[in-house]
Every structure is written in C-alpha cells, then in structure tokens.
C-alpha cells in the first residue's frame, strides 16, 4: 500500500512530495519531483496544496473513560460558587438529566476560590431525595449528598466532600467500560484524530490491557495507545508477563506502558504535598502542607518491583515536596522514568530531572485553569509553578498532555498554553515560563518527519510558527494519518 502527498510544506520550508509505503515515510523529495503522469508516484495521490505538515500529535496524559463519560454528566465547568453548582444541578434534574445507575452526576466544579464552602446540608437541601455525586474538575474530590453516601457506603463530614484515595475508589466504581457504548469510545477517538492526535498515554484506573485490545478488535483504530497499569493490578500483569513496550493488540496500535503511582493530591483540592503550608492553614494541622497519598517507602517498593519486572514508571507529583521525594526515589533506585504534572518544583530540583534522566510530563492548559488558584494557595511560589520554561532550560525532556477530561484532548490547546501562557483577555502569566514553539511541538510528538519514520502525520491549514495564540488554539486540521492511512481528512 502506498500514498503520495504532493506539495506539503514542513516547518516553513520549501514544499516537498512525500511517498509513504507500508506505513513508513519512504521518500521526501522537492515538490514537483513526483507526479502521476511520469509514473514516479503510485497508489493514491493527494495534493496537499502547500499546507503545513508535521509529525502527528501525542497527548501524553489521558483518562479516556473519564473523557468519554464526561459528555453524559451535568456540565459544571462554568460554575463559580457552591450555589452556582447547586442551581445548575437542580435545573439539569428538572430538565431530565440522565442518571448513571440511579445517581445524578455532574462534572467540572472547582472549589479552590469559592467564597462559601461546600456543605452537606446545602446539597441535601437542594436535592435530598435521590443520590447526587458531583465530580471536581481535577478529579480529586467529589461533592455528594447523604443519599449518595448511603448508597455508596462512605462516610462524609460536614462539607459533603470526599477527597483523594477514598474518593478515587468511588469515582472509578462508576466507570465500568461495559456501561458505555462502543460508539461513545469510537466517537471520542475519532474526535481526537480530527485534531491531529495520533496517540495517547492512557492512565485510566482499569484493566487497560483487556479493554484496549477489545476496542481495537471492535474497530477503534484511529489512535495509538500506551496503556498504563495501577498498583492494584501490578502483580497480575507481572504474572501475565507484560513488559513496557510489549504490543497488546494484533494491529500494533496498543502497547503496554508504565506503572502509574499517585503520591499526592492536587492544587485545587489543596492536597498537593508541599514543603510549606497552604495560606491560612494552621501549620500544625495534619493537612497544612497537603498529603502524601502513597508513602514514599511504598512508592520505592512499587517502583523497584516494577523495574525488576521490566516495567517502567510514571509517578504523579504536583506539590514541590512530592516532586522532591519522587526525584529522590528515582535517584535511589537508579532508574529513569516520568514525573506526571511536576506543577510546583523547588529551584534546586529543576536540574535534577535531566541529571536523573526523568521526563517531565506536563499539562499546560492546567496553568491557564489554575493560575488564580495558584496565586491564592501558592502565593509567593508561582514563579516556580507550572514552570515549563525552567524545566526546559534545565535540560529536562518535556512531554505535553491534557489530563483529559480535566482539559480538552487537543494538543493545539496545550501548545498554545505552553508557548503563550495566556488565553481570553488576560495577559501572559509568568511569561518567563513560556517555551519555544519547536520545543512545544517536539514535546507533543513521538516521531519526526524523516525517511524511515512512521507515517503518523498531521496536515494543518496554518503554519504553527506563523500563528498567534488564538489561531493555535483553533488550528484547522486538514488531515491526520496513522501509519500512512487517513484517520481524518478534509482534503
């Protein structure tokens, strides 16, 4: 099977013709060298007409089922207070919102800057006759009423909020893949392809080996997937013989990824593990500096077990103490790996990412969502918050992602946030932490535009190097190719 792309323009250079054979880039020659008339080109021929072309996009942090299921939950992303959340939820219920297993569910509230806190009494008063579970935008806590707590067998305090480990167990109890139609997964994968995405790193807390193999077998073939495992399934995958990089499906689209361990919470939930107390917190309070979700001794044992079994690691660390402790753990074990989020980092720790061979997997749109929360809860520390520029200058390898559904599964949004540090009417937030366009693009891809490379490609209507911030966020994608076949095209 062959495909020839005529007149593509890579990286602002002169147009080229590209020949693709057997899923790989076979030739790149000056435009006009190949044509159907002289027989130099064979198979399908597509005139790209001078559009920009580059390697296909990878989103390096996705919770795919959460991303899919978000569409069926009440949208709380525009709410700004506890009362806003309750008003939207009550209206949605009156309008016939669909229940999930008999529970009314919403997604997207952010309570970090609410003037009045969430309370169990308020949600019980607003909706007390049916179970209600509302998921925070960062996925690290949920607000529920007494009926839901009774149904789920959990204990609530006066806030009605359940946080971190107990909450995450509850959250994933709603997300059995067989409860969602295959068509919903296909639509989400195809939507990602329409934005130039060719691959994702899957961090859903489920049996990703079985579920993604089944999805590919059932025709969801528009994405490559690197599928992670959580600690509760680690011994099983070791016993089954899985190693990082092993192919999972017959088409070579899904590979076994890394062990995912979460060592602290999040900024919006004020559970990120920090060296200094959160403003306004009594320093003697056990959560004044956030929380250690997985003890470092346990993290070390998990990573060592995975390493010895040929499984690499990706560790969630948001607060600066979490990052310090995780860096120390990787150093002690002498193993490379990925630190997910790296949102707050001590100055002395930036250089250690490169020194230890660790990748910083970051989500630039989180900086846009959380800048005000950071200015409040990390006051005096935001010069090193979401510090992508500092990480890059220190030599760290960056990978960009969305953490979908926390931010949109759209790498052009991530690239815009990384390079501009602003959106809407606002000025750039800590512009010294911007990264250059070539760095952002490289951090969003896994291949290059070169002979012998996989023909995972994106063709766009604009040259990203010539785009302003908003043009990047709204980048028109003319085509996406995965292994030389179109997964999205308008040309």
Distance between the termini: 19 Å
Give the CATH level 1 class of the largest domain.
Answer: Alpha Beta
| Helix/sheet category | alpha/beta
Number of helices: 16
Percent of residues in helical segments? 25-40%
**Largest beta-sheet characterization:** 8 strands, mixed
Q: What does the overall shape look like?
A: globular
What is the number of beta strands?
Answer: 21
CATH architecture tag of the largest domain:
Alpha-Beta Barrel
The tally of domains stands at 2
Instruction: Report the sheet-strand fraction.
Output: 15-25%
- As residue ranges, the low-confidence spans are none
Q: Output the CATH topology of the largest domain.
A: TIM Barrel
Mean model confidence by pLDDT: 95
Rg calc: 23 Å
CATH superfamily of the largest domain: Metal-dependent hydrolases
Organism: Microbacterium murale
InterPro entries: Amidohydro_3, Metal-dep_hydrolase_composite, Metal_Hydrolase
Protein name: Amidohydrolase YtcJ
Pfam families: Amidohydro_3 (PF07969)
Brief write-up:
With 491 residues, the chain is an alpha/beta fold. 30% of the residues lie in helices and 23% in strands.
Strand and helix map with partners:
Blueprint: E1 2-10, E2 16-21, E3 24-30, E4 44-47, E5 52-55, E6 57-62, H1 64-69, E7 74-75, H2 82-94, E8 104-109, H3 120-126, E9 132-136, E10 141-144, H4 146-152, E11 161-163, H5 164-173, H6 182-193, E12 197-202, H7 208-217, E13 224-229, H8 234-239, E14 254-262, H9 296-308, E15 313-317, H10 320-333, E16 337-341, H11 350-355, E17 358-362, H12 364-377, H13 388-393, E18 397-400, H14 411-420, H15 437-442, E19 457-460, H16 469-473, E20 477-482, E21 485-489
Parallel strand pairs: 1-4, 1-5, 6-12, 7-8, 8-9, 12-13, 13-14, 14-15, 15-16, 16-17, 17-18
Antiparallel strand pairs: 1-2, 2-3, 5-19, 9-10, 10-11, 19-20, 20-21
Pfam families: Amidohydro_3 (PF07969)
Organism: Microbacterium murale
Domain Amidohydrolase: 44-486
């Amino acid at each position: 099977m062959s495909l020839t792309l005529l007149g593509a323009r890579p990286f602002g250079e002169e147009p080229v013709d590209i020949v693709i054979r057997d899923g790989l880039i076979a030739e790149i020659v000056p435009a006009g060298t190949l044509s159907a008339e002289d027989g130099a080109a064979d198979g399908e021929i597509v005139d790209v007409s001078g559009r920009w072309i580059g390697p296909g996009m990878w989103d390096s942090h996705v919770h795919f089922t959460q991303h899919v299921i978000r569409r069926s939950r009440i949208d709380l992303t525009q709410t700004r207070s506890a009362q806003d959340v309750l008003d939207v939820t009550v209206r949605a219920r009156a309008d016939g919102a669909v229940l999930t297993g008999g529970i009314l569910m919403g997604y997207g509230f952010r309570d970090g800057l609410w003037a009045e806190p969430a309370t169990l009494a308020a949600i019980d008063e607003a909706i007390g006759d049916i179970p209600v579970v509302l998921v925070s935008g960062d996925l690290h806590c949920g607000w529920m009423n007494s009926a839901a707590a009774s149904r789920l067998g959990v204990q609530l305090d006066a806030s009605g909020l359940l946080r971190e480990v107990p909450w995450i167990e509850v959250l994933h109890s709603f997300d059995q893949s067989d409860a969602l139609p295959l068509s919903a997964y296909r639509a989400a994968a195809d939507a990602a392809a329409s934005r130039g995405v060719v691959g994702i790193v899957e961090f859903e807390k489920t049996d990703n080996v079985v579920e993604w193999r089944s999805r590919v077998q059932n025709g969801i073939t528009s994405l490559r997937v690197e599928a992670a495992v959580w600690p509760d399934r680690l011994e099983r995958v070791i016993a089954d013989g899985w190693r990082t990089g092993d192919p999972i499906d017959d088409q070579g689209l899904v590979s076994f990824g890394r062990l995912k361990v979460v060592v602290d919470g999040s900024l919006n939930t004020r559970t990120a593990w920090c060296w200094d107390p959160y403003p306004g917190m009594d320093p003697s309070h056990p959560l004044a500096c956030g929380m250690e979700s997985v003890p470092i001794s346990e993290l070390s044992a998990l990573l060592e077990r995975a390493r010895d079994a040929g499984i690499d690691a990706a560790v969630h660390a948001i607060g600066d103490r979490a990052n310090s402790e995780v860096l120390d753990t990787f150093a002690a074990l002498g193993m490379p790996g990925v630190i997910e989020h790296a949102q707050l980092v001590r100055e002395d720790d930036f250089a250690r990412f490169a020194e230890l061979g660790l990748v910083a997997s970051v989500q630039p749109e989180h900086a846009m969502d959380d800048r005000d929360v950071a200015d409040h809860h990390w006051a005096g520390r935001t010069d090193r918050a979401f510090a992508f520029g500092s990480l890059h200058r220190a030599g760290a390898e960056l990978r960009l992602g969305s953490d979908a559904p926390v931010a949109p599964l759209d790498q052009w949004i991530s690239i815009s946030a990384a390079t501009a540090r602003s959106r809407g009417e606002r000025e750039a937030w800590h512009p010294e932490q911007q990264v250059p366009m070539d760095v952002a693009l490289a951090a969003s891809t896994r291949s290059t535009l070169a002979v012998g490379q996989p023909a995972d490609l994106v063709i766009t209507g604009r040259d990203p190097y010539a785009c302003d911030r908003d043009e990047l966020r709204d980048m028109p994608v003319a085509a996406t190719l995965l292994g030389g076949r179109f997964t999205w095209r308008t040309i």
